[in-house]
């Protein structure tokens, strides 16, 4: 059994007006027509309505406060409770929610919602918004694409992923939320886009970066090499003496900025790679060269 004061969230010293105010607030939140299909909320509504009925009956409230009866109106020891409805508080009308003709709960609802228990409300209420998450590939996010999702009502739709979509960006699908009440419009669906990482491309705003390995001869002698971009392969002229960390820019090969309608750039950073197997010829050549040339690559490590 639940204390009616606790159900309404009021102290035992609460005035009738304070009890009415507390019930109005809960009724607005819990009424079944505001929460269609939610059985748990409907049960809560029945309980707080029964509590209001109980506490606005002066005789029952006084006897309860004196400990003569329990929450169901029965003498102490007989059990009961609001979840089963009131045993001695009048007949419950078919289809009602614990509102009795001689009680004031119906008047409160009529004042608040504009209807009584005899007539279901014709209130207009916009449908609730719903949230989803969808994972897309890196290229679909930066170049745009389509993704199919299933909605809570079982419907399947294809959504458009705009070019340049960022990880965590939310797309709004107007009218794809829960249905409204009383002919009001449906809510919206908000889809959070989770962008999968790409094995090569990294994003920085609307720019793209990529790490590109080059051979020792390409690094020393220079070469024209092929590198990937989000739009396909392009030829890139690698200058002589390109060391690890050398970086070149491919202008306009980044991501489209929908606000400026301009593309970012792609930055290609090089890493010099030795062959998988170093043969004796390379060792001999490096040894001959190193005897005539020396250079310090670690001196700056100890400058501080």
Mean pLDDT: 83
Q: For the CA atoms, what is the radius of gyration?
A: 36 Å
- Global geometry: elongated
Instruction: Compute the number of strand runs.
Output: 13
Task: Supply the number of helical segments.
Answer: 8
Ends distance: 75 Å
What can be said about the biggest beta sheet?
Answer: 4 strands, mixed
Structural class: alpha+beta
Measured by DSSP, the beta-strand proportion falls in 15-25%
Q: Percent range for helical residues?
A: 25-40%
The main sheet orders its strands as 6-7-13-10
Weakly predicted, low-confidence segments:
78-103, 115-121
**What oligomeric arrangement do these chains adopt?**
single chain
Spell the H/E element sequence. Answer: HHHHHEHEEEEEEHEEEEEEH
What topology does this entry show?
Blueprint: H1 4-8, H2 16-30, H3 39-55, H4 58-65, H5 105-113, E1 130-136, H6 138-143, E2 145-150, E3 156-161, E4 170-173, E5 189-195, E6 202-204, E7 207-215, H7 216-221, E8 223-229, E9 232-238, E10 247-250, E11 256-257, E12 262-263, E13 266-273, H8 280-292
Parallel strand pairs: 1-5, 7-13
Antiparallel strand pairs: 2-3, 4-5, 6-7, 8-9, 10-13, 11-12
Helix pairs in contact: 2-3, 2-5
């Amino acid at each position: 059994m639940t204390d009616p004061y606790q159900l309404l969230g009021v102290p035992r010293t609460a005035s009738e007006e304070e009890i009415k105010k507390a019930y109005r607030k809960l009724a607005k939140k819990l009424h079944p027509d505001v929460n269609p299909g939610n059985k748990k909320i409907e049960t809560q509504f029945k309980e707080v309505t029964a509590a209001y009925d109980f506490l606005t009956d002066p005789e029952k409230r006084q006897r309860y406060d004196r400990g003569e009866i329990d929450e169901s109106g029965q003498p102490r020891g007989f059990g009961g409770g609001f979840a089963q409805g009131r045993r001695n508080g009048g007949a419950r009308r078919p289809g009602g929610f614990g509102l009795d003709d001689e009680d004031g709960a119906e008047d409160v609802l009529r004042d608040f919602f504009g209807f009584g228990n005899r007539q279901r409300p014709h209130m207009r209420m916009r449908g609730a918004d719903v949230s989803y998450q969808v994972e897309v590939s890196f290229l679909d996010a930066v170049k745009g694409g389509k993704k199919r999702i299933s909605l809570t009502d079982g419907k399947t739709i294809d959504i458009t992923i705009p070019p340049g979509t960022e990880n965590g960006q939310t797309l709004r699908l107007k009218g794809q939320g829960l249905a409204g009440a009383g002919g009001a419009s449906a809510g919206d669906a908000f889809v959070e886009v989770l962008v999968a990482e790409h094995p090569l491309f990294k994003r920085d705003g609307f720019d793209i970066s990529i790490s590109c390995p080059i051979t020792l001869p390409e690094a020393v002698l220079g070469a024209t090499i092929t590198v990937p971009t989000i739009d396909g392969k392009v030829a890139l002229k690698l200058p002589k003496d390109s060391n690890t960390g050398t970086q070149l820019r491919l202008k306009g090969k980044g991501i489209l900025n929908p606000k400026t309608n301009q593309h970012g750039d792609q930055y290609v950073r090089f890493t010099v790679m030795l062959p998988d197997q170093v043969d004796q010829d390379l060792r001999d050549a490096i040894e001959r060269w190193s005897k005539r040339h020396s250079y310090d690559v670690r001196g700056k490590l100890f400058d501080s």
